[in-house]
Amino acid sequence: MKRSQSLISTLPLVLLAVLTAGCSSNTPVTAAPGEADQILLDRGNASLKDKSWTKARTYFSELLESYPQSPLRADAKLGVGDTFLGENNSASFVYAQNEFREFLAFYPTNARADYAQMQLGMVHFNQMLSPQRDQTETREAIKEFQTFIDRYPNSPLINQVKQRLRESRDRLSDSDMIVANFYLSIRLYNGAEPRYRHVLETDPEYTRKDSLYFHLGETLEKTNKKAEALPYYERLLKEFEKSEYLEEATRRVDRLKQELKLGAPVEG
Prior knowledge:
The termini are far apart. The chain has a domain at 8-87. It is mainly α. It has helices at residues 2-23, 36-49, 53-66, 73-87, 90-106, 113-125, 136-151, 158-185, 189-202, 209-222, 226-239, 246-262.
């Protein structure tokens, strides 16, 4: 009986020796009791850093399966999610999303819950399409990054997430701008104006707001709303020191001021 118990107690170490012999070119590890889970985590993190996704996932998975009481299980769970995210394909994104959502469900108060939430956003961020295409993943990325900001305002990852959120919002606004510009180009002004206004209202920090001001002003001019158009050209000149639209916006401001003062169109 004692021999059976001894065999069972040493089983995790045997598994570790086999695992490290098969998955690494290094000499197999000899671990003292209580150290094998840390070695698995370290090996997994090293493989993750080397972008050896399958190898890293093997180490993390072995820790999760063989050490149900280990305090390192949360880190291993995140590691598995990171390996799937790193593989960067449609199937792996599904698995990555599942891993990060499970982490947040199982470890909501864990010190790395903020990281899991950020990575959940990155699952969608990495699947965002160009502005001309469907923006479903962009909207999902925005939702998850905003959740991060609401839940973890003091996280050391906050600036990184804010940058990703800005990129995501820009992508969505670029999509609306492309549609609005198309409507403007075919003189469908009643389709262009609400699109421009939507971007202005929903994304006040839009990076390319100089283009938004200029084209909204132009649309309003085309529909004989000159008094409404003028302030957008003026905002462009006030808020942007550099823009491809500055010279033309300056000319339009001068012309509109004269027209509005005289009550008649001014040539040029």
